[in-house]
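A reminder from the course coordinator: this example appears on the midterm review sheet, so study it carefully.

Given structure:
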């Protein structure tokens, strides 16, 4: 929603200009069209008016009061925080944001967001019945989707949810990675909603707490090839990533993979039967925080499982060695593009 008038010359960057040049098919306010470009414009306008990028503006007003630390976002080529996508938060921080809206913008003793705006933003503003079905056809507010059972939500690609349920006084935050996003909401309505009752929940000895876990990579914790491969430099075939060479370093507990060019190296560490944590850039994107585990599924093939735990992406990296040749295959659970990452070929460097 735009308040007041904004001319395209006020929005910095070529991306903003291109968005304004897109044809407007329907009269504004009459037809639902999901448009992340419009949300980018909101971020660009905020930056132009306040002199601050989106996360910098939110830090003292929302993030710090909620105790949210380490929020990150993608940026456009001119440095603008994109606003409509690409923000990374811990799942518990997504829950805090949902709780803020469930409480009508109030957090403790502070009214961080005006209550009338919260009510308006989360209410039915436009029909989207033509654009989807079930929870994608319940109406749209201001950056919030309406849901069945009088709930509302913010959602991100591949099953990232901030679901607020006013009638149950509950917030559900989910970070998942799958194509069928409706399936996740169906599970909430079918499995969780029937057990929700009015009043406070009580914790008893029969209450079950299940520690969340991801499956670690399977396979052996060593290979006869490790001694020969350790520390050797592999020259890689051309690829869409940021690297042209690879170096594997092995120890008893895991493997370290160095990817990059002479002037830039990204390091990935993975434990045998255990998780190692860090952050890495595999493409021309911000670094991804990850947990990784590894295993030899055969004496010639090393498999590394990478869980990007603040994003929907899981990556299986398979490296197969044959004398002085190597193939490296990277498979994502979900992607924004069609097709697969190309298989890389490596040769021992000179």
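Designed residues:
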């Amino acid at each position: 929603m735009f308040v007041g008038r904004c001319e395209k010359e006020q929005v910095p960057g070529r991306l903003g200009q291109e968005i304004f040049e897109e044809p407007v098919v329907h009269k504004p306010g009459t037809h639902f069209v999901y448009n992340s470009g419009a949300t980018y414009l909101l971020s660009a306008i905020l930056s132009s008016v306040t002199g601050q990028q989106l996360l910098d503006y939110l830090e003292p007003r929302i993030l710090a009061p909620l105790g949210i630390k380490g929020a990150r976002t993608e940026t456009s080529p001119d440095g603008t925080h994109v606003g409509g996508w690409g923000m990374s938060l811990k799942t518990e921080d997504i829950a805090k944001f949902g709780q803020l809206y469930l409480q009508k913008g109030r957090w403790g003793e502070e009214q961080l967001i005006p209550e009338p705006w919260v009510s308006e933003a989360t209410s039915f503003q436009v029909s989207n019945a033509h654009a989807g079905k079930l929870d994608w056809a319940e109406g749209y507010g201001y950056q919030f989707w309406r849901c069945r059972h009088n709930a509302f939500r913010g959602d991100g690609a591949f099953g990232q949810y901030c679901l607020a349920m006013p009638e149950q006084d509950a917030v559900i935050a989910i970070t998942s990675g799958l194509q069928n996003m409706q399936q996740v909401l169906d599970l909430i309505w079918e499995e969780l909603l029937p057990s929700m009752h009015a009043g406070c929940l009580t914790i008893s000895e029969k209450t079950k707490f299940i520690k969340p876990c991801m499956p670690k990579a399977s396979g052996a914790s060593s290979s006869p090839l490790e001694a020969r491969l350790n520390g050797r430099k592999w020259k890689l075939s051309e690829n869409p990533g940021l690297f042209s060479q690879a170096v594997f370093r092995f120890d008893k507990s895991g493997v370290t993979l160095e990817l990059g060019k002479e002037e830039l190296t990204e390091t990935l560490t993975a434990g045998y039967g255990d998780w190692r944590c860090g952050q890495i850039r595999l493409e021309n994107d911000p670094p991804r925080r990850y947990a990784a585990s590894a295993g030899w599924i055969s004496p010639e093939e090393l498999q590394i499982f990478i869980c990007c735990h603040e994003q929907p992406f899981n990556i299986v990296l398979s490296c197969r060695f044959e004398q002085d040749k190597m193939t490296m295959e990277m498979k994502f659970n979900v992607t924004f593009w069609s097709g697969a990452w190309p298989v890389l070929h490596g040769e021992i460097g000179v």
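The chain is about 20% helix and 30% strand. Residues 89-195 form a domain with the Beta-lactamase fold (CATH 3.40.710.10).
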